[in-house]
Amino acid sequence: MPSSHAFSSYRCKHARKASDLPHAFEPNELGRRQALLHLRRLHEGAYNAFLCSMPAVDSSAGHGSDAANSHTLGLGLGWSHDSVPDLASDASSGQQSREVSGASRPVAGASAAAVETTSPAATQRRTEAQRSRLRRMRATPKARKAEAERSKRRREQLTPAQRQADAERRARKRQRAEERARSRARRAEVSPESREREVQRSRDRRKNATELQRRREAQRSRERRQHASEEQVLRERERCRRRYEAKKRQNPPPVEINTAPNEATWQPPAPAAALPSPSARTSVVSTAPSRGGVQPVDLERRSQQLLHQQAGLGLQLQSLYASLAVPPRPPRG
């Protein structure tokens, strides 16, 4: 690679999409290290061609492969051999994680995507991102202001390459937000027939899904509910309430019919000692529930109380009839 291009990435000047910041690096040791990291991350072909253009190194010199490669790179860019191992120490934590993940990413297509999606590191990053999003949504105005100050100080300390990466990340985030807004507007403008067809396609897709797809969808739903904001929880509750009311209107619950007083089974008269006291009968009548907001359980309880009250009145009538049927005793002379 020509030395004139070492601190200004001409490969990115005509293909930039994120911002107007060029990939310019400072003319010092740190700038040379950042230039190499940028070359390895974004221009792998040019980086490999640069390595192939270096003279071969004898492996019998007592150095390992890593030491030989680092020594070769140091010769090519004017570094000292002792300064090469400090490449990763001067990069930010975000660049280090991207470098490691990019170096360890498998080459296969679908299998690589599956490994990247299901790997513990990817799951941890996704969980941490969701936790940060939830923390930002629930933050107080004072916490938001403090976080904005910290972000401002952190952006002021970024290198040009880090500023470029941050601008690209913000552009991707803005593009995703615009795409979501367009999708919402498109869904709001569709006709009822199209919406019904989409609902039917979704039902068919869920019905014909494999077990792995069902597990993934269940995991996504759990994470979405776990990291939902207060507004999302309220919207979900309202949606469930409307769905329940619509279902209840379509299938009304059966109305329980109380047993009529004349349908009660007749019981033989009992002695007067077994009759309930007037205070007990009064308490039974007074404990009857009001008609406002009557539930099926209350209806059943009230029906049982009425049956007991009717049985008590029947027993009183039977004892009264029995006492009237007994002939009066003649007075003793």
Furnish the topology, listing elements before pairings.
Elements: H1 10-13, H2 29-42, H3 44-53, H4 65-77, H5 87-90, H6 93-103, H7 110-118, H8 120-137, H9 141-156, H10 160-188, H11 192-207, H12 211-226, H13 230-250, H14 278-286, H15 296-325
Oligomeric state of the chains present here: single chain
Shape: elongated
Structural class: mainly alpha
Low-confidence stretches: 1-6, 17-21, 59-117, 259-264, 280-289
Chain-averaged pLDDT: 70
Question: With helices defined by DSSP (H or I, 4 residues minimum), what is the helix count?
Answer: 15
Strand content: under 5%
Biggest sheet architecture: none
Number of DSSP E strands: 0
Q: What is the terminal separation in angstroms?
A: 146 Å
Cα radius of gyration in angstroms: 41 Å
The SSE string, one letter per element, is HHHHHHHHHHHHHHH
- Helical fraction equals 55-70%
Write up what this structure looks like.
Among the domains are: 3-106, no CATH class; 263-323, no CATH class. It is built from 15 helices and no strands. The protein has helices spanning 10-13, 29-42, 44-53, 65-77, 87-90, 93-103, 110-118, 120-137, 141-156, 160-188, 192-207, 211-226, 230-250, 278-286, 296-325. The protein starts with 9 loop residues before the first helix and ends in an 8-residue tail after the last helix.
